[in-house]
Amino acid sequence: MKRVRWLLFLAFGITLLSGCEKREYADIAEAIRAGAVLGENIEINGEDVSRMEVALARRILTEQQDAYFSSLQHEIRAGERNVHVSAAELGASWNLDDVLLKALCLTQYYPGANKARTFAPSLVIDERKLGEQAEHIAEALQVAPQNAYATYDAEKDRFDYTESAEGLQIDAARLADQLKIALLAERSASIEAHTISVPPEYTIEEVRADTQRIAEFSTSFRGGTYGKANRVFNIAKAAERINGITLAPGEEFDMNAVLGPRNGENGWKEATGIRDAVYVQEYGGGVCQVSTTLYNAVLMADLTVTERIHHSWPLGYIGIGRDATISTGGPNFKFRNTQEVPITIGAHTDKKKKTVTVCIYGRPLADGETIRITSKKVETLPEPETEVIIDASLAPGVQQVVREPRQGSVAVTYKEYYDADGNFLRREQVTKDKYRSIKGIIHIGPGTGSVYGDSVPSD
Description:
By secondary structure, the protein is α+β, with helices and mostly antiparallel strands. It has helices at 2-18, 28-34, 54-71, 96-104, 127-141, 172-185, 204-209, 229-242, 255-259, 287-300; strands spanning 42-44, 47-48, 73-78, 81-86, 92-94, 117-119, 123-125, 149-153, 158-162, 167-170, 189-192, 195-198, 212-220, 246-247, 252-254, 270-275, 278-283, 304-307, 334-336, 343-350, 355-362, 370-380, 386-390, 399-403, 409-418, 424-435, 440-444. The strands form ten sheets. Strands 13-21-20-14 form a four-stranded antiparallel sheet. A three-stranded mixed sheet has the order 2-1-6, with helices on one face. The chain has a three-stranded mixed sheet with strand order 4-3-11. A hairpin with a 4-residue loop joins strand 20 (343-350) and strand 21. Helix 3 (54-71) packs antiparallel against helix 4 (96-104), helix 5 (127-141) crosses helix 6 (172-185) and helix 8 crosses helix 10. The radius of gyration is 45 Å and the shape is elongated.
């Protein structure tokens, strides 16, 4: 009987020395909830965790792990840019939970007090986190290509050009492989990311080609009628307002919107204008010469006119059928940029030469074509009558010309297309304008005959 008892005790001791009788915990969370305690003489990664609760041991080892992987710094370079990231941020860690579960399987008591039971955790890489970090790093290192661009100097009437620059694209998947190799080595590393050059979409040559002067048109304000100081002031002010405006492809230009209401509060001056078929003094008188000049430049640039109205009668500074009147709250001039690239308007007044000039910058017409604008009167309308009105406010024998009679006409305007060598290609009709006949009006004092007075000189 004594022998049997001794054999049973020996078997129990061998079991204690040989390891875990059974795996008590499904995972580390279950062990923590149970308040599991590690046995004697257990060392994990050089840290003595003997007789510790597994939760405490896990916290200590995790802090050790985080400090270690945070100390492993990796520099990733691409061109002139670089990013620094730690191994911890890249998803490197140890399999601490697995090691702790194995340690919990050991017997609680270990006779060899001077000989620790040791564990060395293994490196674990979170592939998903590594991939995400590689994507973020690639995004931070990549350089977008810079397109060339032009800036219009409105004062100097020229473009300043900025060169394009190539971009860099980072292969994130390849970078993830490079980072993984560095993590497996468990040491800090300097990595040159694989890059792909990305060319710009718009080069300086293309920008220069798309900012050519494709149309230029001038009108003169010489003479006593067109060159009066207030009128010239309004012309210069209107030209300055439209100077430097850039329209994107498909964008519409609105002359009245750009100029704003013409009144004294907005700095406009009173000058001769046409209203209700008579000459009047009004704020902004003269701006129609700018809209007319712009209209002709737009036609020469082959852009699409969306709104345009001619004056009550032909004007002296432009050929018949080629004028464009505007008025605050009334007629307007609009056109649309039908090019595939932006266009820019340049407008300048030369007070010495007494001219206003409008240029359109953009992409030249195909095959070097150019456009000339021509017009001609094709019909003269019947001569109008003059209405005589008795005006009791006038003294007998006094007469007042309220409105001159004007004989109307019909005019046709054409675009004439020429090739790069100046050879005529085709002609297209732009407009057919009817300047209606305008009945004259005279007021006379009672008791006088219907004798007409002198006409007001035409502008």
